Amino acid sequence: MSSSGPSGNSPQQARLDADAPGTVRLHVGEATELGSRALQRIGYSDKDSDVIVDQLVDNALCGYQFAGLPRILIIAADAKTRGPRSEVRVVHESLLGVTLDGGNNVGYVAVFRATEIAARKAAQTGFCAAGVYNSYYSGRNAYYAERLARQGFVVFHAASGEPRVLPPGGSKPALGTNPICFAFPSKDGPVVVDMGTSSVMMGDLRYHANVGKPLPPGLAVDARGNPTEDAAAALEGGILPFGGHKGFGLSFAVQALGLLAGAQLARGNVQDFGFLFWVIKPELMLPGTDFAEQMSELVRSIKATPRQTGCDEIRIPSERAHRERERRRVEGIVLERSIIEAIQAI
Questions:
Q1: C-alpha angle with apex 46: 147 to 263, nearest 5 degrees?
Q2: Which of 205, 283, 331, 336 is the most buried (most CB within 10 A)?
Q3: Architecture of the domain made up of 88-198+241-284
Q4: Is the pTM for the entire model greater than 0.85?
């Protein structure tokens, strides 16, 4: 662990994360140890702590600071975390589908278990639809989808949530932030498309509130429905969907897919957390065809598109995150000192 200050690097050698007063640079092992200790103090087993912190550190490596170790503070503060938990269990299973009761476990644990089962079933049958309910906070959809794509599967993943997003014309939240994710295997590694249907994700909003940073304009409203750049005020109000009615339409569809995953079964509420996977073995539809090679060719073709003046590269979704992951494994992860102290205080 090192306190951040001037790095002394030339502009060509500048680190991805700038050192600044009030920040600390952690290497992967240090970040993992800090996160694991805090999660165990909250009450998670060694096994579950390992599952959670592996994603949190990977999120930070990929450049999603708000989805990294700061998320431990959100988990610790949530009333669900203090509630009783039971083992994640299968409540319904068919040849091509499975539904799991998350047992009020945080989604990092419950959804991870679902991916393990979905991969096993899809390897046998070519396809699996998996749903998880009675859970919350699953983190970054891309984390799960990428793991499945590395096993050769094509993946669709959607996650509905509690009301945080206002529908167009509404004065109160009615939808979750409702991210959607696609992942594809290729000869050059997984290609992942992961996006929220809200203008800002809740983790990012809470991170801004924790460190006192303003939001960009046009993303959120306060409790009275007035536009705000104050993240704390937005937590009392709500978030807008991205892209107006188009983002709202996608968000509505994800909320409905959450019902397919069992969202209403936990508390009788149709506006709740539900995590859905469709996991497909490419050979199910294209026997004898090398889908991964086709994906690599698609990526190469798109990246070879003639570029406009001033454009150095055409980038494919997930390319930035995967590059940054490898650099931060060497350079470390920079966190606000206040965040580290709050985690240590647990």
A1: 55
A2: 205
A3: 2-Layer Sandwich (3.30)
A4: yes
